[in-house]
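Input record (Table S2, row 390):
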Amino acid sequence: MASSNGNHTGATTIRIGSRESEVRELALKQTHIVRDALQKAHPHLKFEIITMKTHGDKILNVALSKIGSKSLFTKELEIALEEKHVDIVVHSLKDLPTTLPEGRVIGAVCEREDPRDVVIMHPKHLEASLATLPKGSVIGTSSVRRAAQLKRKFPDLVFESVRGNLNTRLRKLEEGDTYHALILAAAGVMRMGWEDKISQYLEEDTCMYAVGQGALAVECREDDSSTVALLSPLGHLNTTVAVIAERALMCTLEGGCSAPVAVHTKVTEDQLNLQGGVWSLDGSEELRHTMSTPLAEPDSSSDSLEQPVKMAKVSTTPYTGVVSRQGLDHFMSQAHNLGVNLAKHLLSAGADRILQAAKEQNNANLPSNNPNLPPSSSNGQKKEVEVNDS
Ligand code: DPM
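Output record (DPM complex):
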């Protein structure tokens, strides 16, 4: 529970855990966005950001391969949350697995930024688009989802991994000659204040986005009902139903964050529309399908009296970690079912075979990450950590 720090104002302090990073990095910017929104919703409370070095930050100069990249940068935060040193942690939703650690929930999903992917061109190619870049141009992305879709659309382009935080990636593009362009999520680019660097927005016929892309998620302890309640005003209904459908799709497909799975979701006043896609790594195979569900109030004809709303203890959430809210449960369950049904359709059309092949190819391409082996380079040079830490 949020600590009452017993000072004379009696103010309760909510502690927000964040990776120790420079202010100009995305993780801290996102934490500030959520802190500011919480402060606005709860002017009488105090919010304190507690930064900590994560394992990934501590070993930045050690040779590493593409290892279990997520926990590397979040493990310490998870422990701090569990041991109640912090009350909440802010994440990009697309980096959160569809199964959260025991006892953890997503207490709020904030309003989604533009979920699309965008192209940032090398300064020499500002006039170009992906379609007009010279044959053989190198596009930087470590996302198999982006590479698969774009290879299909632009077979003459070459896709190469680019790593590091967003500042590092941009520097590698602009100061080097390796990449002609980068593909990034619009949301991260906007939060960094780089909107004017965007050359092209990718529409769904070219590149569908990742599950949860563009939305921030606030994680807390499931049994911390006061914090769960505090987070409620940050939750954005349309975003929440959209991402519940997307995550249910992902979870049912059993695709991880490195699977070539993508979505395109539309929410109108009374309908949720979900397009899902699955690709082979080289883009030669593609499966897409769209389904929709009405977002309707529950039929209350048989139950005309409003039930008094009790703030019940939050139960284990069936919605891939997103806390269920009184009064919204019906919409959330419709969204969840849509995702599950779309996944079932894709699986019956062959998605399982495509994803299994992609997984095997991915594993085969992985450099050894056995920590018991000596570092792969013996020339004494420091190697860059190869993980997604943006
Ligand atoms: C995940 C992926 C990437 C991030 C894979 C994907 C991109 C990796 C890369 C799951 N996490 O999207 O298919 O391009 O090398 C990440 C970014 C953001 C959150 C940066 C980005 C910011 C946008 C957001 C990294 N995680 O995708 O450009 O909050 O949604």
